[in-house]
Amino acid sequence: MKGILNYFDPDLLTLFEKEGVIKDIPKDTELIRDGQYINSIPIVIRGLVKVFTKYHEKEFLLYYIQPAESCVLSFIVSKKNEPSTFFAKTEEDSEILLLPAIKVQEWIKKYPQFNAMYFNLFNERYFDLIDTLNHVLFDRLDSRLYTYLKEKKTYFKFFRYCYFS
Questions:
Q1: Nearest to 43 by CA among 34, 31, 33
Q2: CA angle at residue 10 from 64 to 7, to 5 degrees?
């Protein structure tokens, strides 16, 4: 865990180890259900998680959570103590660090780099969503499919490089 999260303060990493739980979660496992209250905030150590929302029984992919990233929506709804309006499941076998939401709220105030991570992730997710909407509205389907396949190929090359080199 320390290797992938080494940009955090060592004291914060110690708190992660003390208060958090690391779980190995198989592919296609639902981590967060629509309507669930969030008690734990996930940070992906290894693997990939997809975050979706539903509208009239249709699923819409919001974003992926990659290693060293967390779920911005989990953070937001836990802070507001509201049920989730999204769901998340593993795209592949994953190792997830689950941090108690109540502790995350404390650590955000005490450790500026932890707070910055969530602001940066929120910023990335917002612009990813705008980019996706632009592609859906203005690009042809064949162009979107080509771009998607190209990105998947790049991700898997990066994944193999990081974990098998």
A1: 31
A2: 40
